[in-house]
Amino acid sequence: MKNRRPKILMIYTGGTIGMVENPETHALEPFDFTHLLDNVPKLKMLDYEIGFHQFRHPIDSSSMNPHYWDDIVRIISENYVDYDGFVVLHGTDTMAYTASALSFMLENLSKPVIITGSQLPIGEVRTDGEENLITALQIAAARDADGRQTVREVAILFENYLWRGNRSTKHSADNFDAYRSYNYPELAKIGLEIIFNREALWKGPVADAPLNPHYNMDNAVMFLDLFPGLSETVVNHVLSIPDLKGLVLKTYGAGNAPGDKWFLDAMKAAVDRGLVIINITQCANGGVDPDRYVSGLDLEKTGVVSGGDLTSEAAITKLMYLFGRNMKASEVKHYMQCNLCGEMS
Length: 345
Ligand code: ASP
What we know:
Order of helices and strands: EEEHEHEHEEHEEEEEEEEHEHEHEHH
Structural class: alpha/beta
Distance between the termini: 33 Å
Radius of gyration: 21 Å
Bound molecules: aspartic acid
Shape: globular
């Protein structure tokens, strides 16, 4: 591919970037792709071959679900050989969930999947959408001296940074600079030039391993966030939800939980019944270190598994992915502690 024009497929799922204001309610609603393209005439200045694919009904990403993830994976895998890279236009609300999910579902990915969106619609004068879209395309088209794609993973491009998808979190509902990765450095910094952080980029699968797409994420999972005063009734209720297979327990600090006997007994009983419970921290930065405090150690003794420095988004989608592959609880616990595609340190 060294000497030919980069061939990029743009997949439009919806989100603010392509929205317009409803004249009656003044609320923003998803609109179609042609409108979006009409607003970025500069696209023609890029010497790329760009293909387009749009969701039949573009969505606000708060309606994202695993069926849509299957659609995105299918589109990428069906076009994988024909295109050098992919740009997914997506709402910011659940972008980090989609980025994390795709990173697991697209096993052996060796081409860029760059997800972007914007805080202001592309038709607005001050939009951040135009710049994000153009930069995302340039990153998807970037190649190394040997002709290989520079980025070989799922990443989020937002304003001045490219972040690893499964390390990212939406941290601002208002700022243009909406995304952050608190436990992993940027993959690229966008200024006058795009400066890649080569050390941080995922190296890709072993040579020539073909893309192995996975579908059918299992949604028999949920979060439980600790707070002082969380009651025994609520905990027991959550732990006995029929068919629940996995729970992401969001604990304090370095993975600490209340030392109350009823709490630890409830966790142990649920684990013994086969529920997989993953301990991640409520803090934005850092991770679970069960050995630091006795409260973390006691929780670990119940059979709750440390999720290290996984983000919430990566933890829940990783559980969905592993259960979706029909793994047994013991296998899920094992892989939750392995770094599959750069999601944990
Ligand atoms: N609600 C919008 C969405 O996630 C927000 C955005 O795109 O920024 O689709």
